[in-house]
Amino acid sequence: MDLTLKIWRQKNSSSKGKFETYKVNDVSPDSSFFEMLDTLNQQIIEKGNDPVAFDHDCREGICGTCSLYINGRPHGPKRGITTCQLHMRSFKNGDTIVIEPWRAKPFPLVKDLIVDRSALDLIIQAGGYVSVNTGGIPDANAIPIPKMNADLAMDAASCIGCGACVASCANASAMLFVGAKVSQLALLPQGKIEAANRVQKMVAEMDHLGFGNCSNTYACEAECPKEIKVTNIARMNRQFMKAKVCAEKHEAASFGG
Amino acid sequence: MGLFGLFLAMFLLVHLTINLLLLCNDGGELFTAASSFMGTNIAIKIFEYVLFGGFFIHIIVGVIITLKNWASRPVGYLVANKSHTSFFSKYMIYTGAIIFIFLILHFMHFFFIKIGWVQVPAGLEKHDFYKMAIALFTNKLYSFVYMAFFIFLGFHLNHAIQSGFQTLGLNHNKYNCTIKKVSLIYSILVAGGFSLVPIYFMFFF
Question: How many CB atoms neighbour CB B52 within 10 A?
Answer without folding.
Answer: 11
